[in-house]
């Protein structure tokens, strides 16, 4: 039963707790509005990650692709998703841990 109040839900690739890259490639997370309103969101991420979108609005859900390339060193960081409900002005935040293994480029 929903009381219609807004909220932000963030779902990661395969319902994981973090984005873990064993090789170069892409994974995703989704931002969803749990009530009846609209969320305006901003996303901060380390420079070694490429995001398909860093800000926007969603009334239902929005899929964000996260891509990493090959690198000689292991990398770790946090993706921070911040959202504001456009009606209530409530603020929501979710931090997503991310890790990429060392992936040397082929010579």
Q: How much strand?
A: over 45%
Please, what is the oligomeric state? single chain
- What is the mean pLDDT? 88
User: Can you give the helix content as a percent range?
Assistant: under 10%
| Number of helices, counting only DSSP H or I runs of 4 residues or more | 0
- The gyration radius over C-alpha positions equals 15 Å
- Determine the N-to-C terminus distance: 57 Å
Q: What topology, given as strand order, has the largest sheet?
A: 2-9-8-4-6
Overall shape: it is elongated
Class per helix and strand makeup: mainly beta
Secondary structure tally: strands: 9
| Main sheet overview | 5 strands, mixed
Low-confidence stretches: none
Order of helices and strands: EEEEEEEEE
Task: Give your account of this protein's structure.
A 5-stranded mixed beta sheet has the order 2-9-8-4-6, with no helix packed on it. It has a 4-stranded antiparallel beta sheet with strand order 1-3-7-5, with no helix packed on it. The protein is an all-beta fold and 107 residues long. The chain is 0% helix and 55% strand. The mean pLDDT is 88. The radius of gyration is 15 Å and the shape is elongated. The termini are far apart. The chain is built from no helices and 9 strands. The protein has strands at 8-12, 19-21, 25-33, 39-44, 49-51, 55-58, 61-68, 75-85, 91-100.
